[in-house]
């Protein structure tokens, strides 16, 4: 990868780190050209770079975490499926004439166990993103997901979903095809399924588009992923008529994994490699696989009725709060 291309993928808050890394490379090259031993200085600078990386990524604001969640090199659903599955076959079509590339799925094996994988799929570059509608699924995508989940339920296979979308496609054609009905139908049916369902927010979990495949027994979330009722930009435009206030909206919306764990909305935070999942996708995939197996084991011993009851109770308690009356 060329230096110019790499720079275009840098986030603003990563620039001091990138400058230090470039400086280390320049010193190393000069030392090799002049046959000078600077290994001690290089080690000190590399230790400083690692320290700076940890300082940056342990103190990210919600708006900065959103940037990480949207990073174009962040691992996608297909990346994770191919990395964690023993074997995998993608299935296509909703049996109503559509095959939405923004929502992918199929059958595979996870540590030898047959499962159904499905999730949102963003593109790697502009052309691919346009082809996959930037991960915004159409009604046909949610109906394809439902078809695969019904297949899983019929044959007793756990359902593994990966959430990564700014939201469902909000175009006129999507409304004509019944976008709201498709998502609502999925919500109802996912509460009915008897097999275990494990959902993971791997990047950006936005609005009903995320919920359309997000009803499960366990909800996992990567450390730098986000999960929100609406994008901060949309929230800022609605509340303040000013999308530039999206950082303020990101704070108010409580979109980060730590906020959502504190609110008891998610069950498990998956630690990312230092610098984000995009810096070491294989390490992130290893963490994901271990978490999926661990959480599947937690719900596998339950009866179908117990799973259904616990799943229903889990979502019914979301948003419940206690308000103390102010003393006069």
Automatic annotation (TrEMBL):
The chain positions of domain CoA carboxyltransferase C-terminal read: 44-298
For biological process, the GO terms are: fatty acid biosynthetic process; malonyl-CoA biosynthetic process
* EC number, UniProt record: 2.1.3.15
Pathway where this protein functions:
Lipid metabolism; malonyl-CoA biosynthesis; malonyl-CoA from acetyl-CoA: step 1/1
Major location (coarse): cytoplasm
Record's Pfam families?
A: ACCA
Keywords from UniProt, A to Z, are: ATP-binding, Cytoplasm, Fatty acid biosynthesis, Fatty acid metabolism, Ligase, Lipid biosynthesis, Lipid metabolism, Nucleotide-binding, Transferase
Q: Where in the cell is it found?
A: Cytoplasm
Which reaction is recorded as catalysed by this protein? N(6)-carboxybiotinyl-L-lysyl-[protein] + acetyl-CoA = N(6)-biotinyl-L-lysyl-[protein] + malonyl-CoA
InterPro entries, per the entry: Acetyl_CoA_COase_a_su, ClpP/crotonase-like_dom_sf, COA_CT_C
User: What role is this protein assigned?
Assistant: Component of the acetyl coenzyme A carboxylase (ACC) complex. First, biotin carboxylase catalyzes the carboxylation of biotin on its carrier protein (BCCP) and then the CO(2) group is transferred by the carboxyltransferase to acetyl-CoA to form malonyl-CoA.
NCBIfam families assigned: accA, AccA_sub, PRK05724.1
Of which family is this protein a member? Belongs to the AccA family.
Protein's name according to its UniProt entry: Acetyl-coenzyme A carboxylase carboxyl transferase subunit alpha
Q: Which organism is it from?
A: Richelia intracellularis HH01
Q: Which gene encodes it?
A: accA
